[in-house]
Amino acid sequence: MERLYYKDITFPLHEYETEKEYEKQIVKHAKEIFGPNSIYIDIKKKIGDEIASIPDGYLIDFYFEKTPKLYIIEIELESHDPYRHIGQQMLKFAISYKASGRKIKSFLLNDIIEDPEKKTFTEDRLKKAGYRNIDDLLEDLIFDKEVSAIVVIDECTGALENVLGQLAMKTDIIEFKSYKYNAEMIHKFTPFQEELSESLGFDINPEDLNTIVVPANPEGFNETFLGDNCWYQIRISSNMIGRIKYIAGYQTAPISAITHYAEVANIEKYKDTSKYIVHFKEPAKKIGPLKFSGHKKGTLRSARYTTFDKLVKAKTFEEVF
Description:
This protein has about 325 residues and is of the alpha+beta class. The chain folds into two domains: about 5-190, Restriction Endonuclease, CATH 3.40.91; about 195-320, ph1033 like fold (Roll). Helix content is about 30%, strand content about 30%. It is built from eleven helices and 15 strands. The strands form three sheets. Strands 9, 10, 11, 12, 13, 14 and 15 form a seven-stranded mixed sheet that branches. A six-stranded mixed sheet has the order 3-4-5-6-7-8. Strands 1-2 form a two-stranded antiparallel sheet. β7 (about 170-180) and β8 form a beta hairpin. The two termini are about 40 Å apart.
């Protein structure tokens, strides 16, 4: 069994007995999980008629100030069958969502307006996003924009990724685990879109992010990035899929540098997984190499984002971000 050791205390992994117990912790820590620029709406109402479903909640995310986004939230325990339970539920969401647009808009609008904190939070962001009022915002998010989903689960398995990879709806996964010692509980999770926040330098606006930098060992890099004009099995936030215009490759040791970049042709699901494959418009071009400056040592362990302008102007690895 997993354990966390904190302040001389060993916290065993807490196994939730019911989904309701688990969900209470998600709602309680919604701001920490989904980010301070979001509103979590804890509403469970049936949507759809012939094919009905009941989402666990909704999230309105303002991380990108000019282009807020709506997400359907599904909170699950890994012990549930990913094929018969999670997969079916997500498929029902995708089918019933548009047909229930008016109903969804009505209860989301009422929830926001009746909660002074949510109402003030939303109204403060309307102007930057270009909306007249909350009604106008929801009209656009529900009927004109693509809706995505977020699955919060205590353990992400290959079976879950396989199920979600077969769905057309873009889906993000957040793994949220809890550890408990007597009455004290601590939680382990990676906040939603954390990889975007880690990529932001003091001079980068999130709206300008358009380039993904991926790590690769030299052998795989030469074979796939340079040989096949693509790179695959990349975990990409659903909110970034339509924003990525360029991809750059960081070759790990012994090269330890960003050496090539390419313009993106298209991004699609990689086989039956929740990860993606990026296809290039043309063979990658050389850049740099962009190494760590001076005597600094470091590496790139997971994908990060930047702007193409910063990439092509950079002289060192640090200047890319």
